[in-house]
Amino acid sequence: MSASWTIRAAERRDVPDLLAIEVAQFPEPWTRSMLLEEITNTETRRYRVAVEETTIIGYLGVMFVMDELHVNTLGTLPGHEGRGVATSLLEEAWADARARGVERATLEVAASNTRAQELYFRFGFAPVGVRKNYYERTREDALVLWADLG
């Protein structure tokens, strides 16, 4: 089955849609200014959106640090979880990262977010540590995950 969405670069006009997903999915959503800064910093950041018809149903933001990729944020529009949106965004980012010669990837994920962890484990991520009280509002720990992209 092929995806019914396309992936394209995130643009300034997408910020309200990304904010809506952030607020719906995360206890500590990014702000409008944070998202705008990330999207427009194309030198070290790469933000992509999955669009179905005219609706943004998911997005992924990564940062490149030397030969590493850091997953900054990944979100799916409520009601579209489990359709493979996040998987397709990660697959597309992995292909781009490998083409750039990136060898490793890292991210932090909430210790309680087992659904996200399962997705990341499928992409070869493994836990290497814990950041205690990483999330300010909830005081929740974050697992630090690393993956080899080779």
Q: What descriptive keywords fit this protein?
A:
globular, alpha+beta, Aminopeptidase, 150 residues, 7-stranded mixed β-sheet
Task: Give an overview of the whole structure.
Helices cover 29% and strands 35% of the residues. It is of the alpha+beta class and 150 residues long. It has a domain at 6-105: Aminopeptidase, CATH 3.40.630. The model has no long low-confidence stretch (mean pLDDT 94).
CATH level-3 fold name of the domain at 6-105? Aminopeptidase
The share of residues in extended strands comes to: 25-35%
- Report the top-level CATH class of the domain at 6-105: Alpha Beta
Strand order of the largest sheet: 1-2-3-4-5-7-6
Largest sheet: 7 strands, mixed
Summarize, please.
The chain has helices spanning 15-25, 32-40, 85-99, 114-122, and strands spanning 6-9, 45-52, 55-65, 68-76, 104-110, 126-131, 142-148. With 150 residues, it is α+β, with helices and mostly antiparallel strands.
List the helices and strands and how they pair.
Elements: E1 6-9, H1 15-25, H2 32-40, E2 45-52, E3 55-65, E4 68-76, H3 85-99, E5 104-110, H4 114-122, E6 126-131, E7 142-148
Parallel strand pairs: 4-5
Antiparallel strand pairs: 1-2, 2-3, 3-4, 5-7, 6-7
